[in-house]
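Project outcomes to date are best conveyed with an example. Our students and postdoctoral researchers have been running inverse folding experiments weekly, and each run begins with a structure described purely in tokens. The record below, which covers 294 residues, was selected by the lab manager from last quarter's runs and is presented without edits.
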């Protein structure tokens, strides 16, 4: 099946169930390049002793002072230091997948890699809906209907290394407040089955999105999802990008304008990081969130 045929089917599945999977979104040499560049970005992150930010570029670090060694668990907006990721974010395959859902003019509001290095421990994401990470909803129209988040498997993504898990149909239930209690930190503790039941979701219906490298998952701002910590001996690198219909968003970096791919400009545009202009860095953030109570 061609990518655009898969995209049409995926769009329908996304609308109905709140998620979809596209197989073989990247293959062959392109996949090897993704894996090699992701390793390079990880090594770049490891140079920082603590969580680092400069503009939109950021690395979330678990430091050796609190862990058995230094780990990088997230990179944000690698595109600012990586021509590879600057181009990948507007690869024609993304347009093919997004077009049936968002049209041909699309901005990007998030770019991340999430690693789950074996041994790091704190690599689970409690069940949540991503709408909680969109603070300034006034800058969007129909934010839920205009947003699609994609996750590209860099490594094999399995139940034991912490693949994404979704609750099909949960996107039709409105905002449920999952993981909002306490500090709202989603990487501490685990979602218990009772927490899903408490908001009317059936834990038995959870779907594990096991992916081969190069497969792409799609989910929405109201799709309940999370993932378990990695308990295997193999990392799970996952490249996330969140896209929004351009005409409905004041925020984001252009990815496609009328179907033409658009490179980053000289200065970052406001995306999700609210302090982009007041606190652009470079700075280190030594907050030890892992010592807080969940
Ligand atoms: O990387 C994952 O498994 C999930 C990440 C996630 O849901 C998020 O960052 O919002
Ligand atoms: Fe999420």
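After processing, the design step wrote out the following sequence:
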């Amino acid at each position: 099946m061609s990518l655009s045929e898969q995209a049409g089917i995926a769009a329908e599945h996304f609308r109905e169930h709140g998620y979809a999977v596209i197989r073989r979104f990247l293959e062959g040499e392109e996949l090897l390049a993704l894996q090699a560049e992701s390793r390079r970005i990880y090594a770049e992150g490891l140079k920082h002793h603590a969580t680092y930010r400069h503009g939109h570029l950021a690395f979330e670090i678990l430091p050796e002072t609190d862990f058995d060694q230094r780990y990088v668990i997230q990179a944000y907006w690698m595109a600012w230091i990586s021509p590879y990721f600057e181009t990948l974010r507007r690869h024609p395959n993304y347009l093919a997948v997004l077009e049936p859902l968002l049209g041909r003019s699309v901005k990007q509001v998030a770019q991340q890699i999430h690693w789950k290095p074996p041994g790091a421990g704190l690599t689970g994401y409690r069940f949540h809906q991503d709408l909680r990470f969109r603070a300034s909803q006034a800058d969007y129209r129909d934010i839920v209907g205009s947003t699609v988040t994609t996750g590209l498997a860099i490594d094999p993504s399995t139940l034991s290394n912490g693949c994404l898990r979704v609750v099909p149909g949960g996107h039709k239930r409105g905002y449920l407040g999952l993981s909002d209690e306490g500090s709202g930190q989603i990487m501490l503790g685990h979602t218990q089955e009772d927490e899903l039941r408490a908001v009317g979701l059936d834990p038995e219906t959870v779907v594990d999105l096991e992916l081969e490298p190069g497969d792409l998952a799609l989910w929405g701002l109201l799709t309940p999802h999370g993932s378990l910590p990695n308990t295997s001996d193999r990392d799970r690198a996952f490249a996330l990008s969140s896209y929004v219909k351009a005409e409905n968003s004041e925020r984001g970096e252009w990815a496609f304008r009328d179907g033409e791919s658009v490179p980053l400009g000289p200065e970052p545009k406001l995306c999700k990081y609210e302090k982009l202009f007041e606190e652009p860095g470079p700075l280190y953030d030594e907050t030890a969130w892992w010592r807080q109570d969940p």
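The longest helix spans residues 28-45. The pocket of fe (ii) ion (ligand 2) is lined by residues 128, 130, 225 (CB under 6 Å). The training component of this project remains on track.
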